């Protein structure tokens, strides 16, 4: 009995971590370039609805993913325009994008009532039945939809891009020493735009995976449930490093999965305390790492091309 | 070149600032309403009819307007809590958490049957709420002041902790939760701890007046007292403030705790005035609306009153609009968000304002040093 619970918990841990990992990868690039994209919660929500709607009307997962990418890019562009070009406060911009997204998704979902009761096509499981039937491993790893696998490979790719490619170097340089980048003749603004748009795309994809990867439906009224903020927390706890952030995401995913199981079991520890855990860990981690050098040097500050 | 021109407008003493910030806000709101109008039209309703329904819903009769007054009270108190932080250059985004803690604190007192006279019971409940919220605000305040922790991330994380804490208290905690309720809620508050209803047939409680008075008090506090001067100096130029002898750490903690107390007061009034119980999601989203209120107000306490009323009208009118035109009431939050986004997107960027302010504060510091 308890054995089954552990297996289903591990399986759920991977499943719940997948959207977090996707969103986190984008957010790392954005924050490394100095822009805190707080709108990821809202963009995720929009991506979740977009994925469902596109999948419902086009009956194709591929179209749904492409539509989600396009939406994420547009929303990322909007955030980038406001925070980079207009130099608005990044916190306020993000929070307002979230408010806008909550309203907009509720509004649109109310208009698309036909999608409500229907389950749409979800991400396929790529492994053959035989592999899924392998005890333990099959249940935990091979029953996962393809999206989970991609999400788990992504942090490694992100680490390579961030540390080994020229663009990754540019992004890190823009976040730490924008003036140096400008002196080298590169466009700080352009790189920041790219990084923020990247975070928009991945946030939308994360939302899409949340709905299409598992449940196959959208629930109005904030179905992302603060996951965007959990990702922001994971990025901080992970010290803006893709792999360490991925570990933080998996731990938070595990807490989330455990919390859902405890809710059903009526355990000694109230499940709400497990729900608090990611946020408490983040506050402690924030306190511990302030003095460290991990924080991008222009984190959250506006870049003014005129000031040297 | 362009920026220099803009700087010229702001250098007109006193008037320049008002014209600039006022017109910027109004243009932003107008653009926000215009864009929302297009969205309303896209969802098959006449925007003019919809906005008309909204105004009617907020001002149509005395009951509607009382509804606005009830809705505005947490926005005023929370908005002021954020605004005072803005003045000091701090983003106190934890209003939602403070409201929950305020509700918990006052709830713990309000459910007790001590046989106290009503005025005393209410006072105790409010004080308990504010104390709980102040303790909660002390955490990010201390971390920001002494450890340099980013207050935005910290307060938002603590908001979620507060939400889950409330969730647990109202659903499982035996001493607080109503047992056998269909919906997670606290025990009902004693009659003696409930705020009086000012107008029969409505739910109008004195919260709105408390809110307005608090805003006015802070207007004077910020403008005419040493405390206000130190706060504005901290926001203008922390270095200048430090050189002129302001205890920056103390001031940061003070500002954050004050903001938290205002948020807690808002939450306490909401439960003892309107709900008479603590529910799990009773202020969800209001904390973020308060940030928007403070932003529209540009951190100005009198502006908070106007911005608070604007949002309350949108919220109350939005419900009527939804009934009369079929546009979902979620349109309200779209309008709010668009207005704020346009206000911050239009006109001067924050940086220019800060730069100008810091010059001013620098000059002040120099003058002060010379005097010494």
Would you give an account of this structure?
The complex is a heterodimer of chains A (308) and B (372). With 308 residues, chain A is mostly helical. Chain A has a single domain (2-117, 128-289), classed as ABC transporter involved in vitamin B12 uptake, BtuC (Orthogonal Bundle). Chain A contains 13 helices and no strands. Chain A has helices at residues 2-32, 40-58, 61-85, 90-111, 129-132, 137-142, 146-164, 166-176, 178-183, 188-215, 227-237, 242-265, 271-289. In chain A, helix 2 runs parallel beside helix 4. The longest helix of chain A is centred in the first third of the chain and has 31 residues, at 2-32. Chain B has one domain (21-371): Orthogonal Bundle (ABC transporter involved in vitamin B12 uptake, BtuC). Chain B contains 15 helices and no strands. Residues 1-6 and 349-372 of chain B have low confidence and may be disordered. At the A-B interface, helix 4, helix 11 and helix 13 of A face helix 6, helix 7, helix 12 and helix 14 of B.
List its salient traits:
heterodimer, A: 308 residues, mainly alpha, ABC transporter involved in vitamin B12 uptake, BtuC, globular, B: 372 residues, 15 helices, 0% strand, disordered N terminus, disordered C terminus
SS element count, helices of chain A: 13
What CATH first level of chain B would be assigned?
Mainly Alpha
Tell me the number of strands of chain B.
0
In the CATH scheme, the class of chain A would be Mainly Alpha
Distance between the termini of chain B: 39 Å
Q: Give the CA-based shape of chain B.
A: globular
List the helices and strands and how they pair.
The complex is a heterodimer of chains A (308) and B (372).
Chain A: H1 2-32, H2 40-58, H3 61-85, H4 90-111, H5 129-132, H6 137-142, H7 146-164, H8 166-176, H9 178-183, H10 188-215, H11 227-237, H12 242-265, H13 271-289
Helix pairs in contact in A: 1-7, 1-8, 1-10, 1-11, 1-12, 2-3, 2-4, 2-10, 3-10, 7-8, 7-12, 8-10, 11-12, 11-13, 12-13
Chain B: H1 2-10, H2 15-42, H3 47-59, H4 62-87, H5 95-110, H6 118-147, H7 151-171, H8 207-224, H9 226-236, H10 238-243, H11 248-275, H12 286-296, H13 301-325, H14 331-345, H15 350-371
Helix pairs in contact in B: 2-3, 2-14, 3-4, 3-13, 4-8, 4-11, 4-12, 4-13, 5-6, 5-7, 5-11, 5-12, 6-7, 6-11, 8-9, 8-13, 12-13, 12-14, 13-14
């Amino acid at each position: 009995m308890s054995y089954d619970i552990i297996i289903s918990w591990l399986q759920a841990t991977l499943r719940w971590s997948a959207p977090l990992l996707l969103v986190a990868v984008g957010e790392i690039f954005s924050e490394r370039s100095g822009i805190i994209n707080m709108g990821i919660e809202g963009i995720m929500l929009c991506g979740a609805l977009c994925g469902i709607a596109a999948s419902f009307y086009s009956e194709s997962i591929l179209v749904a993913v492409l539509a989600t990418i396009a939406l994420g890019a547009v929303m990322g562009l909007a955030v980038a325009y406001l925070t980079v070009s207009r130099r608005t406060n990044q916190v306020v911009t993000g929070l307002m994008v979230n408010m806008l997204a909550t309203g907009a998704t509720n509004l649109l979902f109310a208009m698309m009532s036909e999608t409500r009761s229907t389950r749409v096509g979800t991400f396929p499981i790529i492994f053959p039945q035989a592999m899924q039937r392998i005890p333990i491993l099959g249940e935990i790893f091979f029953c996962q939809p393809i999206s989970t696998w991609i999400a788990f490979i992504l942090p490694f790719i992100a680490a390579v891009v961030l540390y080994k490619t020229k663009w990754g170097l540019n992004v890190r340089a823009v976040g730490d020493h924008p003036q140096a980048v400008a002196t080298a003749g590169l466009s700080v603004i352009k790189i920041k735009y790219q990084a923020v748009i990247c975070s928009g795309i991945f946030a939308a994809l994360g939302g899409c995976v949340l709905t299409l990867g598992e449940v196959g439906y959208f629930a109005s009224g904030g179905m992302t449930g603060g996951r965007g903020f959990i990702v922001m927390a994971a990025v901080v706890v992970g010290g803006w490093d893709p792999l360490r952030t991925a570990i933080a995401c998996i731990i938070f995913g595990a807490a989330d999965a455990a919390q859902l199981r405890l809710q059903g079991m009526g355990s000694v520890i109230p499940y709400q305390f497990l729900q608090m855990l990611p946020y408490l860990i983040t506050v402690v981690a924030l306190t511990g790492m302030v003095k460290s050098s991990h924080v991008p040097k222009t984190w959250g500050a506006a870049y003014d091309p005129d000031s040297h | 070149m362009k920026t220099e021109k803009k700087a010229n407008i702001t250098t007109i003493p006193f008037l320049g600032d008002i014209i600039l910030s006022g017109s910027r806000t109004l243009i932003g709101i107008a653009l926000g309403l215009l864009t929302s109008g297009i969205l309303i039209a896209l969802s098959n309703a006449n925007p003019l009819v919809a906005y008309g329904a909204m105004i009617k819903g907020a001002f149509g009769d005395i009951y509607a307007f009382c509804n606005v007054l009830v809705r505005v009270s947490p926005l005023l108190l929370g908005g002021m809590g954020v605004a005072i932080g803005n003045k000091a250059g701090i983003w106190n985004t934890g209003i939602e958490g403070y409201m929950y803690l305020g509700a918990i604190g006052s709830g713990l007192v309000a459910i007790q049957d001590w046989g106290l006279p009503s005025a005393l019971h209410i006072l105790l409940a409010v004080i308990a709420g504010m104390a709980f919220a102040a303790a909660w605000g002390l955490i990010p305040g201390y971390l920001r002041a002494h450890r340099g922790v980013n207050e935005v991330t910290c307060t938002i994380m603590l908001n979620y902790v507060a939400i889950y804490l409330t969730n647990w208290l109202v659903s499982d905690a035996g001493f607080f939760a109503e047992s056998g309720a269909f919906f997670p809620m606290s025990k009902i508050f004693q009659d003696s701890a409930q705020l009086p209803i000012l107008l029969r047939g409505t739910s109008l409680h004195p919260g709105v007046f408390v809110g307005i008075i608090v805003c006015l008090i802070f207007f004077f506090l910020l403008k005419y007292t040493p405390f206000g001067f130190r706060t504005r100096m901290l926001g203008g130029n922390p270095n200048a403030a430090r050189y002129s002898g302001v205890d920056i750490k103390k001031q940061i903690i003070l500002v954050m705790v004050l903001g938290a107390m205002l948020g807690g007061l808002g939450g306490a009034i909401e439960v003892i005035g309107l709900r008479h119980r603590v529910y799990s999601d009773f202020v969800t989203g209001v904390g973020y609306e308060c940030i928007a209120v403070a932003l529209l107000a540009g951190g100005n306490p009198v502006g908070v009153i106007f911005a608070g009323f604007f949002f309350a009208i949108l919220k109350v009118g939005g419900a009527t609009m939804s009934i009369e035109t079929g546009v979902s009431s979620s349109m309200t939050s779209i309008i709010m968000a668009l207005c704020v986004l346009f206000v911050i997107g239009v006109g001067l960027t924050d940086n220019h304002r800060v730069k100008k302010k810091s010059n001013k504060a620098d000059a002040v510091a120099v003058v002060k040093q010379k005097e010494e």
